[in-house]
Amino acid sequence: MRILVMNPNTTASMTASIRATAIAAAAPGTEILATEPLWGPVSIEGHFEGYLSAAAVLDRLATLDTPFDALVMAGFGEPGREGAQELLDVPVLDITESAAQMAMMLGHAYGVVTTLDRAVPQIQDRLLTAGLLQRCAGVRGTGLGVLELEEDPERTVEVIIEAARAVVRAGAEVICLGCGGMAGLDEKVAAELGVPVVDGVAAAVKFAEAVVGLGLTTSRGRSFAPPRPKSIGSWPLSTHLDLGRGRGSSCHTDFSAQTSDI
Amino acid sequence: MRILVMNPNTTASMTASIRATAIAAAAPGTEILATEPLWGPVSIEGHFEGYLSAAAVLDRLATLDTPFDALVMAGFGEPGREGAQELLDVPVLDITESAAQMAMMLGHAYGVVTTLDRAVPQIQDRLLTAGLLQRCAGVRGTGLGVLELEEDPERTVEVIIEAARAVVRAGAEVICLGCGGMAGLDEKVAAELGVPVVDGVAAAVKFAEAVVGLGLTTSRGRSFAPPRPKSIGSWPLSTHLDLGRGRGSSCHTDFSAQTSDI
Amino acid sequence: MRILVMNPNTTASMTASIRATAIAAAAPGTEILATEPLWGPVSIEGHFEGYLSAAAVLDRLATLDTPFDALVMAGFGEPGREGAQELLDVPVLDITESAAQMAMMLGHAYGVVTTLDRAVPQIQDRLLTAGLLQRCAGVRGTGLGVLELEEDPERTVEVIIEAARAVVRAGAEVICLGCGGMAGLDEKVAAELGVPVVDGVAAAVKFAEAVVGLGLTTSRGRSFAPPRPKSIGSWPLSTHLDLGRGRGSSCHTDFSAQTSDI
Amino acid sequence: MRILVMNPNTTASMTASIRATAIAAAAPGTEILATEPLWGPVSIEGHFEGYLSAAAVLDRLATLDTPFDALVMAGFGEPGREGAQELLDVPVLDITESAAQMAMMLGHAYGVVTTLDRAVPQIQDRLLTAGLLQRCAGVRGTGLGVLELEEDPERTVEVIIEAARAVVRAGAEVICLGCGGMAGLDEKVAAELGVPVVDGVAAAVKFAEAVVGLGLTTSRGRSFAPPRPKSIGSWPLSTHLDLGRGRGSSCHTDFSAQTSDI
Amino acid sequence: MRILVMNPNTTASMTASIRATAIAAAAPGTEILATEPLWGPVSIEGHFEGYLSAAAVLDRLATLDTPFDALVMAGFGEPGREGAQELLDVPVLDITESAAQMAMMLGHAYGVVTTLDRAVPQIQDRLLTAGLLQRCAGVRGTGLGVLELEEDPERTVEVIIEAARAVVRAGAEVICLGCGGMAGLDEKVAAELGVPVVDGVAAAVKFAEAVVGLGLTTSRGRSFAPPRPKSIGSWPLSTHLDLGRGRGSSCHTDFSAQTSDI
Amino acid sequence: MRILVMNPNTTASMTASIRATAIAAAAPGTEILATEPLWGPVSIEGHFEGYLSAAAVLDRLATLDTPFDALVMAGFGEPGREGAQELLDVPVLDITESAAQMAMMLGHAYGVVTTLDRAVPQIQDRLLTAGLLQRCAGVRGTGLGVLELEEDPERTVEVIIEAARAVVRAGAEVICLGCGGMAGLDEKVAAELGVPVVDGVAAAVKFAEAVVGLGLTTSRGRSFAPPRPKSIGSWPLSTHLDLGRGRGSSCHTDFSAQTSDI
């Protein structure tokens, strides 16, 4: 099966890191395809950028002509998933919900460590809407912005551990890494904390495999029925924007089959 | 003071109807400015269109060069408000929350009557996130699409009353009209039902006047801090789209001062 | 329109201060009429006094022969509002709910600063019943009794700021002043905190203007149907009590039209 | 021990009926003292009357010079209990909460059958505030007013059974009789329904015996600390009202020791 | 009436201590019968032991041939109660729920002090399922294991007081002793804290007296209907186990009538 | 990897059916090992049997000497999972939670169709404790007992569809089959309903693969720390029971590697 992993921002290095994590998590036979929007913010650190990204992700999905069996949305706490669920016939997994769900399989309560403090209420709201907040013992920021995560990896792990310890004291038995940009740091953090650490990208890839493996997909009967036919001005946006030559085909999308397990 | 009322879809007749309702609600001295996005769907009937509209509304706000003192977002149940709260220094009111809040001032429990059944969970989620769901006795669709509301006004009022009766039986003591396209129908519905009917556009205009009147605005300390400076590709979108000549300045925006009370 | 602002205790200086705040908040054309009960406690600092006050307020309403268009009840956390909603045909606003509702228009979560710690659960219960507790990040006492608030205004502002900082740390993005006796201190507190501060009296006056402005009033269909005709011994109480000559007509009620905006 | 049972309205026949139920429930050695307010409504069917009654009950308590070991407040859904808890050093039981608590000892979910539909939200709010609503499967009115309950006892039992069946269908495994005026009907209703039926008066008497039997009483540390010393105009009200000669000592209070178990 | 008090572990000294507390709480005329399972863990400090104990308790109940009028289950936070409710025709009280319910009669919010920190989420879950968590201000461990409680009584009281102070600071107005092994320590703890302390065993005995006194028992209509007739391998377990001679009749069961009040 | 699937009752035909469903769901390379307790009820239809089964399952786990990488507990709504999580170092999945979690990946709200109506509150309680009830639109019984499910498969599918339609009307967008005995019926039901149908056994197998695939297991830090060393009488039970020769090694355990995908 082929899973499309969508980095919601336009930073290619983050797409690459998310892609690597997804490949490491994928089962033999699962092909990972990673991409990002053709326009929009370089990182998402708030509602405004989240809403732009949601539209940019939907635009990317509307114009991508490669088939895939499931979509993994690799933004943490951002809006957009429900739109993709309407747009696509294949299942859509979100790393916020997937991280929380996997954490709930592993412990009684979980906590989330994220980037900036301003993202905390946004993440809590997504978990609330997803029906997954009840067993959340806390969401805590590290004070690092999304792109700062890559600057000094050692320092990044340190502040994640510090924030994680605080949510463990508040009752968390499992920690979720609350940013796509933290992909790949789970093991280092877990080694220090002594509790399981869930990487949302890895969790979502496994859940995508699970859902596709059972032949299931999004319920189309009510909330996520396909969009009704109607006129949408300038849609898809990227076909109306001057995005530079050849952008649609390169754009950091990585179509190479993953080979990590072979 | 000047209140900008934003119709989230691109249907000019709906902007006009929302504008008329806003003007009727406004106090003497309040100027109503009504507009709509420069691109996007002609109506919003689901998550996908809602997310497109959110970006289109933010785009419209980013490029509008007329000052205003408060924004009223006239979509019901759609996403986007938090983005505008980050983007703007002036207060932002949303007709979903405003309708519910005014209803809670008038009765113990309220109900919402909306368009299609598929919008029901979306509206409930917005009310949940807003912290206003506890006293909601029910949200119910009429089966009419957004643009169908205008087709046969008599039939529209009939089906609204029918749905409203069902939520009253479920405990609602006040009814909220759950679509910007229902603006102006409150009195006809109330006359039949015998309980107060709240038009969200009217409620939001009054609340905007209230907030501005007290010199208050959005808290900028955490959730709705201004966006951090960063690179956003193709932003603002409308300046990169070929939207036709002069579109930016006309576009069904109605700058005329409201005169209903003079 | 004429708004009656009811101080729930019998302390005239507090009525005056509440009246001044209401006048400052009122729009041109809004007349503020402020009064207080004819009997009952000089301040309300608990359930017992709250229940006495509720009856005294209802008694005052039953005997007042001046017409008004809306009632603002200026006690914070006390019972009584629902009784007034049954008794009156005009809308009834309560400063507890109004402060919370306005705060929810301005930020994601709000906090309340009140007088004595013993009032904290009482306020939380009122917000719970009102369906407004979900987004409350905390209610915190200053340790000052209601009448002590007026004794040393500088110290009062200091302790309010200290308590407000604690609820901000707990996630509040907006602060509500949780006592009618704190009316007028909002700006000083806001200047120090850097987040919006809501004065419940001001908020309730604006919401009263909003509700009346739209021609709406309390739903009379279920919870707040008018009292059924029946025998009530010694009612209205004040007509059976020896309250001193002429009390019914003077009693610190201030009928003068507000002129602050002219 | 001596338990004071307070009928919140002034109807002597209801006091007598409540007293009889309390005596039937009491253990040997428990003395039942039943009384009612000296003024106020003949029945309580809404918030307005409930608030008057709360003050009238507190007034009665403030002037009663007979010692007792626990108070049972026999109104269902009305306010007032917290005031009595502040005023008295002895424990205070309320039939609303006691009925719900006993029901929760007997089944997974319970339901309440009450008088008028307008009381339903009021009862739900009391249960919510008491922290007992989660396992409530429904509250349902019979359409009979409080004083109508006594008019045609056979019809009364019939409509109670009909309403009870509806809440059983909604998941209730135990039924609470939701009005002091239904005291004594539990067995007839239970015989028809096949599920336990809880009479709140009986439950509260047993719980009062339980609390007193363990030497426990209301926590005085925070919510229910004694009222602070202060001036309260015209208090206690009954000493300032012209209530007729000797009313304070007779007033349908029944001081006779209960003898049912001897 | 005769109340069977079940210590869920096999430690006879704990049965004795629980029995003594039950006798001290019982009314004249109430006979206390205390026993423990015939097999299973010596103490319960987690889910695994809790589930074993649940089966061992049910086994004990299935083979006990002494009649009783109510069962008090003296484990705190462990599973099993619902099974006994199905198995028995008499009412079943649990000290977790009884402690919480009595605490809610005495104050606005309560807290629980228990043994090991690992039990905290387990207790919270039991209270959640029981519909009693809303007014719980906190559950806190002392760090002492169940059997360590008896080792140094003075130290035990000290650490209980320390933990209790923490939950009082968090808003608890009443403290519940959260382990059957803490039976009898309530007065010492209360004397230090100044708030009521509830011993669950004592509370459950009084509530058993209350329920039996009113002739009520578990609703058999749905959740707690009697088990359906079916084949259960090796049941009752104790009749298939080699438990030693005469174990079934002695086994630390204490049939002597309680005489504390005579 | 090897997944142990535990049928909680002793009915071998049900173990076989659950095993077949698990095998069909398993990925290539996953070995399914299915077994059942050595003693206990032939089916679980209530709390009493559930608690017996919990102990019997733990007993089976304590004595099984075959290694496995994850446990799937195939009872729906029964207790026991937390005990296995303490006992084992490998992850433990439960079909109740797994079904709900997979359903939440596919739609906004889900519903559960189960056997007897008496199981409904039990299932709701498990979902509540698991933090998964918020998005449950309803749990509904078919009226068929567990073993009756196999009697007339056509009728079984019919009544499941009928019950499913009712929860769809209540808002469910996905249906969970709420009994291990319904394993394998998902496709027939889905074909009729037009919404996704989740088989809990299949979901749990996929989630076990996901968790094991990422090298994760239960958090051992708090709720699910290993049992403390202590004396447990007659444990493991099966070694003290006379269960017949060779039972421990045959007992319907099916060790054959699954070959469905080869």
CATH fold topology of the largest domain in chain A: Rossmann fold
Low-confidence stretches of chain A: 245-251, 257-262
Number of strands of chain A: 10
- Category from helices, strands and their pairing of chain A: alpha/beta
Overall, the morphology of chain A is: globular
Widest β-sheet, arrangement of strands of chain A = 2-1-4-5
Strand content of chain A: 5-15%
- What multimeric state do the chains show? homohexamer
Protein name (chains A, B, C, D, E, F): Aspartate/glutamate racemase family protein
Pfam family, one (chains A, B, C, D, E, F): Asp_Glu_race
Family (chains A, B, C, D, E, F): Belongs to the HyuE racemase family.
Organism (chains A, B, C, D, E, F): Streptomyces bugieae
Which helices and strands occur, and which strands form pairs?
The structure is a homohexamer of 262-residue chains.
Chain A: E1 2-6, H1 12-25, E2 31-35, E3 40-41, H2 47-63, E4 70-73, H3 81-87, E5 92-94, H4 95-106, E6 110-114, H5 119-129, E7 136-141, H6 153-169, E8 174-177, H7 186-193, E9 197-199, H8 200-213, E10 232-233
Parallel strand pairs in A: 1-2, 1-4, 4-5, 6-7, 6-8, 8-9
